[in-house]
Specification:
CATH architecture of the largest domain in chain A: 3-Layer(aba) Sandwich
CATH superfamily of the largest domain in chain A: Stage V sporulation protein AD
Radius of gyration of chain A: 18 Å
Number of helices of chain A: 10
Strand content of chain A: 15-25%
Number of domains of chain A: 2
Strand order of the largest sheet of chain A: 1-2-10-15-14-11-12
Oligomer: homodimer
Distance between the termini of chain A: 15 Å
Largest sheet of chain A: 7 strands, mixed
Largest interface: A-B, 62 and 62 residues
Helix content of chain A: 25-40%
């Protein structure tokens, strides 16, 4: 049996690919935040032993994959596919991290939704019989992102209240047949949603409509209400975007209530750590999922989680040319018990 | 039945996803080249009705998808997935081209291997029962690539003999169950190969080892000799890279001979059009496949084609930091007759 289509966007998986292992690696600031105990590796500086921030990002992602592979008891070349992507131009963070892996490599670009996109594709490939072990991973680095997307760090620019702090972090999840779980039971793939937001210092607002679209489609197509889940975890909407998402859903009669968590709002202590609206970046949702969320599922705290990572698909060039910011959100349902 | 693994890299597809429709859209220079009759749309200028080259690239890609959808008799929102990516930072060409498509969107980054990566993933998703109709598409634009990767166009820099000319072009292929064909019968996914080439004016040399790796794995894992195919089409190695590929294969006893075609070497008349080693860019192999190659298969000229698009996974930043250029190559086998 293979995947079963529940609606235009949602597929129910038959083979239930499960989490064989997961790992996270983060920077110093993330290691001082509320989730510090959940990360496998915290680097004491921004360099991860390298000479540039871009190389540091690759080193962090490589380390994260090796940690996950170690827990799974396999070498990277034993993976049937590696699915990865990042925010750096030409996704160079992933390419250099994985160039010696020896495994089939499929590069993705989903901006900060990459972890969900990678899990979605990995699940579909495994469910279709095309692979037994697939790694889904991604990273972001505050320093490499800041100078690529915003200003030179030395410039010391002021930050807008709705702005977010790019997480220095990586997360890797290895999915497999015959894994101990949790299992991916269904996936909802997002379409691009652009309501005309142009403020690149307010990504949460640009991405919230896409999250709303995907979550509503997920609930409608699966017939599940939000309370089917113990937690609905969005990627990196931050405080501002999370509030907007709940408002948008509420207008359509969908109430997430206290089961809504946002990785961007969870990873830092916003006030103490001075991150304005919260964390962002591919590594935000990836490191929170691979660490805190999966730990909580394994320990029995959560049995059913909907992981919905969000991405903003603009570039500095498109913003300079006056374009608005297209958002996207993919969702995967993780469950500890399956029928 | 679902995909069957023939080896570490190669999967045989059981449902044989077929080509429902394909389309190509290119710029003026490509429309004056040897393959001019095979393109569906040739724009008389570089702008495709837009005000910037980046917007032009998106307009070209959108037009290409609409042409393919028109031939398939469906609207973009009728697609189960759209898989696309491009060379622009943050793959913005694809995001803006497809933001109004209404279909589930999965962004890819495979540099110039994107068309093969998209076809590979589309085939696996369809084969696994996750979709019935999937569009695989990509684009590149000489002007947007030149200013992002090399120099401002106004600078008029001299070109090195081994350099390639980024194709202004897009190609889209819609795969489906119950399509008239040709069919994708098996796929070989590439791993990253980096032999230390650092000359970004010689991408062919950087990508040839990856093409060699994937082709050799394909032949070994399928048990097919090169003469199983009427044509082995590489993506955009150009004249220099093609020669290197044939030399590398020859050292291992694999002779492609006259059945080797390279999209980069085919799309321009190198001498008359002044393109040095040939064409490159995601749109190079995509437009040649979607046009010339599939036309030739439909008319009976070729019955079996191995399409192996190559990508160079570096970025301007990685090159500035002294990194060598990692290459990748994915291959898909297209056949008009299946058992």
């Amino acid at each position: 049996m293979c995947a079963k289509r529940l609606g235009r966007a949602t597929l129910e998986l038959e083979r239930r690919p499960g989490v064989l292992a997961s790992a996270s690696a983060v920077g110093k600031k993330e290691g001082e935040g509320p989730l510090k105990r959940s990360f496998d590796y915290v680097c004491p500086d921004a360099y991860f032993g390298e000479k540039s921030w871009e190389r540091a990002e690759s080193a962090m992602l490589r380390k994260c994959l090796l940690l996950a592979c170690g827990k799974a008891g396999l070498a990277p070349e034993g993976l049937d596919f590696i699915l990865s992507g990042d925010l750096l131009n030409q996704c160079a963070g992933s390419a250099y991290a994985l160039r010696d892996s020896g495994a089939p490599y499929l590069g993705l670009y989903g901006a900060c939704s990459t972890m969900a996109e990678a899990l979605l594709l990995a699940s579909l490939i495994i469910d279709g019989g095309g692979a037994e072990k697939v790694a889904a991973l991604t990273s972001s680095h505050f320093c490499s992102a800041e100078r690529q997307f915003r200003y030179p760090l030395e410039y010391g620019s002021l930050r807008a209240p709705a702005s977010q702090w790019t997480v220095t972090g990586a997360g890797a999840v290895i999915l497999a047949t015959d894994a101990p779980g949790p299992y991916i039971t269904c996936v909802t793939s997002g379409r691009i949603v652009d309501l005309g937001v142009t403020d690149s210092a307010n990504m949460g607002a640009a991405m919230a409509p896409a999250a709303c679209d995907t979550l509503e489609r997920h609930f409608a197509e699966t017939g599940r209400a939000p309370d089917y889940y113990d937690a609905v975890i969005t990627g990196d909407l931050g405080e501002t975007g999370s509030r907007l998402l709940r408002e948008l859903l509420s207008l359509d009669g969908v109430e997430l209530g206290a089961r809504h968590f946002d990785c961007g709002a969870m990873i830092y202590d916003a006030e103490r750590q001075g991150v304005c609206s919260g964390g962002s970046g591919c590594g935000c949702s990836a490191s929170v999922l691979a660490g805190y969320a999966l730990d909580n599922m394994r320990s029995g705290g959560w049995r059913r989680v909907l992981f919905a990572a969000t991405g903003a698909l603009m570039s500095p060039t498109s913003s300079q040319q006056g374009e608005s910011i297209p958002g996207i959100c993919h969702a995967v349902a993780l469950e500890t018990e399956v029928d």
